[in-house]
């Protein structure tokens, strides 16, 4: 079993349904209706989607700037599991986003009244995550990008792949398909009672 203080989490594609929001914006604002979630077979969208690169860039930049913050949804089951973990110890999220705001605000809004601190670190680069995790004593990291998983493994860390259509290439890492599977890996221990569990 993994101790709660030994594990940290990516945000986009693990906690936040960022690709779902991408498709929603593409349909609503650009009239792009021919792309489905399952079509996102690579992490870098230009490599797998029949959408102009400038359109992809515009949508991603708007998401990163928080322009569609209210429309960004958590992945099913994430809030309940993370809210419970926040009653057992501090939570750490490490994202490759260039700035920590507004995604930190989004996370705190969905995990109200945590008993322990919630920390969100933005590295600005995929290959910078391992430095943060090692400095914090984290051994396990839930991640959706295989490139990052291989990089973490080379640094002696243990990545856990959150299954998505874009990470279906062969790899040697442990996989999880739902947040209940993540919960099952973590040594629960006693919880400290608190208020509401999460906001969708």
Please provide a brief summary of the model.
This protein is 32% helix and 12% strand. The chain has 7 helices and 6 strands, in the order βαααβαβαβαββα.
The helix content is 25-40%
Q: What is the tally of helical segments?
A: 7
How would you name the CATH homologous superfamily of the largest domain?
HAD superfamily/HAD-like
Main CATH class of the largest domain: Alpha Beta
What's the total number of strands? 6
Notable characteristics:
globular; Rossmann fold; 4-stranded parallel beta sheet; two-stranded parallel sheet; 7 helices; 2 domains; 200 residues; disordered C terminus; 6 strands; alpha/beta
What can you tell me about this protein's structure?
There is one protein chain. The protein has 200 residues and is of the alpha/beta class. The protein has 2 domains: 126 residues, Rossmann fold; 54 residues. It is built from 7 helices and 6 strands, in the order E-H-H-H-E-H-E-H-E-H-E-E-H. The strands form 2 sheets. It has a 4-stranded parallel beta sheet. Strand 2, helix 4 and strand 3 form a beta-alpha-beta unit. The relative contact order is 0.21. The C terminus is likely disordered.
